[in-house]
Amino acid sequence: MLPLDLSGVRSMPQEEFAGKRVLVTGAASGIGRCVAERFHAYGAEVIGLDLNLPDERISYRLLPLDLRDPVQVEAVSLRLQEECQRLDVLVNAAGILRLGAAESLSDADWHDCLGVNVSGPFYLLRQWISLFKRQRHGVVVTVASNAAHVPRVGMAAYCASKAALVSLSHCVGLELAPYGVRCNVVSPGSTVTPMLDAMCPTPADRQRLLDGLPELYKLGIPLGKLATTEDIAEAVLFLASERAGHITLQDMVVDGGATLGA
Predict the structure, then answer these.
(1) Is residue 185 part of a domain?
(2) What is the per-residue pLDDT across 19-71, written as a single tens digit (0 to 9) for each?
(3) Which residue of 1, 30, 191, 201 has the lowest C-beta tally within 10 Å?
(4) Is residue 209 part of a domain?
(5) Contact status, residue 229 vs residue 191, Cβ threshold 8 Å
(6) Positions marked active-site
């Protein structure tokens, strides 16, 4: 067998995103924070957006924003565009989870889930699409969920919102493709974040996730481990990089095989 030639395979250099302007929602915690930190470490100018700002000092700029409010989204976007008429990467990473059987979901839970997970990215994209078109380059990476692909008991609002988010990304991606702008989705499975901590506070709860929940029609995780925020950030940065320069309108499922390749 001939030796594998890896001479043409490029690893990500430390300054991969040097000088790039990157906007990340949900950047105060969880996946969004890890994504923002990784872009910053690779040399990007990172602007984070989040409703709840952390008490501790962070390494990148973080602005308060309620994504459910289109007026706030417009004001923040216009402010950032007045500062600089350029955006290289937009990452929609903010998300919330509301649990409950469909008949018991409150109006507030339904509207909050759809508001943050779908309407927020739409409001934000609406403010930046014209800039992407003018500059004729850019990348949008949207963090959805493997719940967009399979139904979940007690997660009607979350699954519906993430499925809508995937479709939104693909539709916007079609509109932006003629301008050289790529739009892709990363769909995580169970990932160690504050959201998962709230759902599964004990080691026994997490083990059940790994083993599967047949009473809820949920498969286990073939790789036998939960994802880390770094696992998801790696996928986001890859899709944002030049190494993914011919990839658009795709949905990368990062869930350890939990949806069996769906």
Answers:
(1) yes
(2) 999 999 999 999 999 999 999 999 999 999 999 998 888 999 999 999 999 99
(3) 1
(4) no
(5) yes
(6) 158
Whether 136 has a pLDDT exceeding 80, the answer reads: yes
In a domain, 210, yes or no: no
- Radius of gyration of the chain measured on its C-alpha atoms: 18
3-class secondary structure, 234: helix
Q: Give the structural domain span for 113.
A: 21-192+229-253
Q: How many domains does the chain have?
A: 1
Report H helices in 177-202.
194-199
Task: Give the three-state DSSP class for 11.
Answer: coil
Instruction: Report CA torsion sign: 142, 147, 148, 153.
Output: negative
Place of tokens 């699409």: 129
> What CATH number has the domain bearing residue 130?
3.40.50.720
Place of tokens 């924070």: 33
Neighbour count for residue 227 (Cβ, 10 Å)? 22
Q: Which amino acid is at 173?
A: G
Lookup: tokens for 155: 């997660």
**Tokens representing 260?**
């069996």
CA-angle at 79, arms to 19 and 242, nearest 5°: 30
Report how far residue 39's alpha carbon sits from residue 20's, in angstroms, rounded to the nearest whole number. 9
CB 100 within 8 A of CB 109: yes
224: nearest Cα among 175, 257, 250: 257
Whole-angstrom Cα distance, residue 106 to residue 246? 43
